[in-house]
Amino acid sequence: xxxxxxxxxxxxxxxxxxxxxxxxxxxxxxxxxxxxxxxxxxxxxxxxxxxxxxxxxxxxxxxxxxxxxxxxxxxxxxxxxxxxxxxxxxxxxxxxxxxxxxxxxx
Length: 106
Prior knowledge:
Layout: H1 7-17, H2 22-35, H3 51-63, E1 69-73, H4 81-94, E2 99-103
Parallel strand pairs: 1-2
């Protein structure tokens, strides 16, 4: 992640890198911010965020553009229990439309 970009700028940047138009990337970025409960940090720079929030940003980046395959390395590491449950619920909802490979410790 880039320290000189905000959360929203990251979502737009990676959306465009994945082939989306700027407008579509911004629109999907807004959806991701709401879905991941990141609206309050959308204008924050990456180096000011907690580890759990950084995980949510990384997961949002992975999900933007609706990829067919998701590779997630310990996606809930450092998250509080409520956020962890929300993220696992999101991953479970996505499993029907995506191939998801997850590494995690049990």
